[in-house]
Write a sequence for this structure.
């Protein structure tokens, strides 16, 4: 049987070959026809009917190329140190419908292989649309990932000096403007990405890696990978010695092993966040806390500490160089995710009253009181600045630093260490000489004075508070100083929940505040103003006589005493003046006074007090006395215990009486009745009564019995 193969001529009848001309056919011609072929049973196959086509020289021809290379850093751009890959096969298809895809029926019109330099070329091509496909029939790219660069097929007019890796397969058009397109390049990389690398102890707490500072092994570091669809992956590693034997090294490897994500920031990419838990035992057991993060506004990013709560890392495809090297001499960026810790800053303070009580036995208006403040560094971190804030109450004024009172460990402060009063702050600056800084277990002490404010009500409880409110460890004048472990200072009398003044927050410098709520960066000093009359009254009595009640009192000395006004009340609340006795003015001699109340009604219980008036009109009151005409008067002393009354809130009263009922009046130092007790008397003679005074505030009080007995006591909340 005879056969002949005829190929339709390029053009309308054969658009596949448009722009090509027949340069070879089976019979040696170029007319798109083969010779007559005879097939017989003895020779049933003829595989010599081949036709060759090339670009028609009558038309403009073009070319497509040019490079397949190993993209070592996976950035999609060929660098000078990156070599081509030899022997990789590529196919060229005509894109008949121009959709950029290889569709069924679209012909493969060429196959080529990269040369020793990784170059390839399809030339003598008619103008039109094509698709380049990397087939790699020899499998040379097995184990490689495909990087991506700019996808612009016409960069720099068709011949791109900077090769950018294109997607595979890649559509390209050659035309009269750009007939030769040498931009169809393909980059491949073998290696994944890595990030790291260091956790260290920042011994000088400056937030930077300095010579002599070492890494810490055994620290857990967490990498959180969040993908664009919201799914998350968590990887945990632990710091170990690096290849050189240096501690504190960590790395996360085999990242970005997915062709969908290359870390170049284009499109949706996974977010890699590195975190370190600051409460790990490896830190807390050694009193280590995070150092200052991102110092100098992150201006030293290769050397500084990142935020323990999380730093976003930027892995780079193919870049696995996380080796620990001196960051100041060129550490790789992917190795710059570092975390520093420093010793705990733990300062404790107490305040004490050290002034000697004046000769008269009490503090008077405007009397100065000396307070001594002690600060101990109970942590492991030396500090260069300490600020002690004194929340001076309204009952104290004119606070002033005692000259030359600053002491360090019992010795005068060395040269260069200063203390300055700025408002209510006492600022201690240890200077830049680290030898003078307040080291662990060091003590500093200083004193200041304050006057009791004029007009302070007698018996007022005065609470003076000091707190360590700021301190710095690097003397850089920044506001990012470390925070004390105990508490955040404030202006209240106590930070501990439920604490009520005048409880001492911490009257001893004992231990640090990390275990429990020992807020020892705060303390208070408590005193009670105990002003007396300008007259020193040493005795005051009220006694029932046959027909009147006699009042007698004695003064040891008097200062500008104009008079005594005698006042009486039936309820210990509303008092009326019933007489006046002229005072002695000023005297240091003992003086006796008396007054007879002849208007007293038998059977009525009366309360008496003296209003002592100075020549300038100022006045004060005495304590109360009680008497009753016709009643049985006893001179037995009253006994009060415990005194002061503390946490039990119970006051025991031991008293002698022969009455069936007993009445006790509790008044404060301003003669205001605070509480009245009316009780049955179990027996004649001595009796003990337990009075519940839980609802009384802290302060000084006196108690008067129904038969005139008087005693004083102090109530505290301790």
């Amino acid at each position: 049987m005879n056969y002949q193969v005829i190929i339709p001529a390029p053009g309308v009848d054969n658009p596949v070959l448009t722009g090509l001309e027949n340069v070879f056919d089976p019979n040696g011609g170029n007319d798109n026809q083969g010779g007559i072929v005879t097939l017989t049973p003895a020779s049933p196959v003829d595989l010599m009917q081949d036709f060759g086509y090339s670009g028609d020289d009558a038309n403009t021809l073009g070319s497509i190329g040019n490079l397949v290379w190993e993209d070592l850093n996976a950035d999609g751009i060929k660098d000078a140190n990156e070599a081509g890959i030899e022997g990789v096969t590529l196919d060229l298809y005509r894109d008949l419908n121009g959709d950029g895809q290889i569709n069924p029926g679209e012909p493969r019109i060429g196959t080529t292989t990269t040369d020793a330099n990784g170059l390839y070329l399809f030339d003598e091509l008619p103008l039109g649309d094509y698709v380049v496909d990397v087939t790699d029939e020899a499998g040379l790219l097995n184990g490689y990932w495909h990087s991506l660069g700019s996808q612009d097929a016409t960069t720099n007019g068709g011949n791109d000096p900077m090769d950018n890796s294109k997607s595979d397969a890649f559509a390209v058009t050659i035309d009269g403007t750009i007939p030769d397109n040498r931009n169809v390049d393909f980059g491949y990389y073998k290696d994944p990405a890595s990030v790291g690398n260091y956790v260290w102890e920042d011994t000088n707490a400056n937030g930077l890696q300095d010579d002599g500072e070492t890494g810490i092994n055994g620290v857990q570091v967490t990498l959180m990978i969040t993908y664009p669809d919201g799914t998350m992956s968590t990887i945990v590693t632990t710091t170990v010695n690096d290849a050189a034997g240096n501690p504190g090294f960590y790395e996360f490897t085999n990242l970005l092993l997915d062709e969908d994500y290359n870390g170049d920031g284009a499109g949706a990419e996974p977010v890699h966040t590195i975190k370190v838990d600051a409460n790990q035992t490896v830190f807390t057991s050694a009193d280590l806390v995070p150092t200052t993060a991102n110092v100098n506004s992150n201006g030293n990013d290769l050397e500084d500490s990142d935020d323990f709560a999380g730093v976003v890392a930027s892995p780079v495809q193919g870049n696995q160089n996380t080796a620990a090297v001196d960051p100041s001499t060129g550490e790789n960026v992917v190795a710059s995710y570092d975390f520093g810790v420093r010793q705990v800053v733990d300062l404790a303070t107490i305040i004490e009253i050290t002034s000697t009580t004046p000769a008269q036995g009490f503090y008077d208006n405007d009397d100065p009181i000396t307070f001594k403040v002690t600060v101990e560094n109970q942590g492991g971190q030396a500090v260069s600045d300490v600020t002690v804030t004194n929340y001076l109450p309204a009952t104290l004024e004119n606070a002033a630093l005692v000259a030359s009172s600053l002491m360090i460990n019992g010795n005068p402060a060395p040269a260069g260490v200063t203390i300055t009063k700025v408002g209510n702050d006492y600022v201690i600056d240890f200077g830049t000489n680290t030898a003078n800084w307040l080291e662990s277990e060091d003590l500093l002490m200083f004193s200041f004075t304050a006057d009791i404010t004029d007009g302070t009500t007698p018996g007022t409880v005065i609470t003076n508070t000091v707190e360590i409110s700021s301190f710095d460890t690097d003397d850089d004048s920044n506001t990012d100083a470390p925070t004390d472990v105990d508490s955040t200072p404030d202006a209240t009398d106590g930070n501990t929940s439920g604490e009520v003044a005048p409880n001492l927050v911490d009257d001893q410098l004992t231990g640090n505040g990390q275990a429990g709520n020992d807020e020892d960066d705060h303390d208070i000093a408590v005193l009670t103003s105990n002003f007396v009359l300008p007259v020193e009254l040493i005795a005051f009595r009220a006694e029932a006589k046959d027909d009147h009640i006699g009042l007698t009192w004695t003064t040891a000395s008097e200062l500008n005493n104009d008079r005594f006004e005698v006042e009486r009340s039936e309820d210990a609340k509303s008092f009326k003046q019933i007489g006046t006795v002229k005072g002695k003015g000023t005297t240091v001699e003992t003086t006796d006074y008396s007054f007879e109340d002849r208007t007293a009604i038998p059977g009525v219980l009366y309360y008496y007090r003296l209003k002592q008036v100075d020549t300038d009109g100022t006045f004060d009151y005495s304590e109360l006395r009680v008497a009753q005409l016709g009643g049985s008067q006893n001179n037995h002393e009253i006994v009060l215990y415990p005194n002061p009354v503390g946490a039990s809130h119970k006051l025991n009263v031991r008293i002698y009486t022969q009455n069936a009922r007993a009445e006790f009046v509790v008044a404060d130092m301003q003669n205001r009745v605070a509480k009245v007790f009316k009780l049955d008397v179990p027996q004649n003679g001595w009796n003990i009564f337990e009075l519940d005074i839980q609802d009384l505030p802290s302060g000084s009080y006196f108690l008067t019995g129904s038969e005139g007995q008087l005693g004083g006591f102090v109530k505290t909340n301790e």
